[in-house]
Specification:
membrane, transmembrane, transmembrane helix, mainly alpha, Stage II sporulation protein M, single chain, SpoIIM-like
Amino acid sequence: MREALFVKRNTDKWRDIEQNPTNDPDELTDRFVELTDDLSYARTFYPDSKVTRYLNGLAGQMHRGLMQNRRDERSRFLTFWKYELPLLFRQSHKMLALSAGIFLVACILGWISAAHDNTFVRLILGDQYVNMTLENIKKGDPLGVYDSSDQASMFVQITLNNIYVAFRTFVFGLFASFGTMAMLFYNGVMLGSFQYFFYERGLLLDSVLKIWIHGTLEISAIVIAGCAGLTVGNSLLFPGTYSRLESFKRGSKQGLKIAIGLVPIFITAGFLESFITRMTLPPVVSGSIILISATFIGWYFIFYPIQLNRRRQP
């Protein structure tokens, strides 16, 4: 390749690297690898050229940046939760809004369907669960299902199941977002019909104060997992200026980080469901747990990312 053509093909990339520095370790590493590839090519074919000296200087500058950004595992862990993950959420807020919208519409449809069809709840929740709950209502303990298992085994089982549901919702984004939307819709319909089941029997407030102790985190995390899946699907459907493969790589990486970030949320939700939900708590205590959970979700996944992104603007 002639030197002029080599320079023309890569000038925009080099200018972007030089004028738009980044502190993201992964992005910095990717840029450094690309730049050193260009430098190796230039050294081979244009050893005495100005472009070779330019690339050598730019690579040296990036190498110093990499050394300055090296962190031990503990620091990298804190950086991920404090900066990297919230900034990823800021980029995915549109997908988060879409995920929440799909889930909310499905909840409403589930509620309406249960109200107009007596068999709908059994179709969605299963005869065994409905019959067991009806028996518990007769005994005066409508939510006695939470007292029926050993706490430790229940914690492990619930947490693993929730993580499985979240990652399945994320992975289904590979089907151009339709798989993720189907998962969100199914879970939304299930929640809507479930809540109507208790409303029909005059137990809506009781169910909210008990179930949403853990459900606030659990349902929020499923919606956020839907955001991760839609991010992957969106990268396939709308690659923008990237090639479809490159867009998919970036979308998958972003979505996977979001999905991984949900694991502590599901662990906390599993703990609350296994050890706290089964207790008979005063309404003010239950309401406080629900409020604290909802406040955390809103702050960490919506407001903090917006504030953090504003601070980074020049």
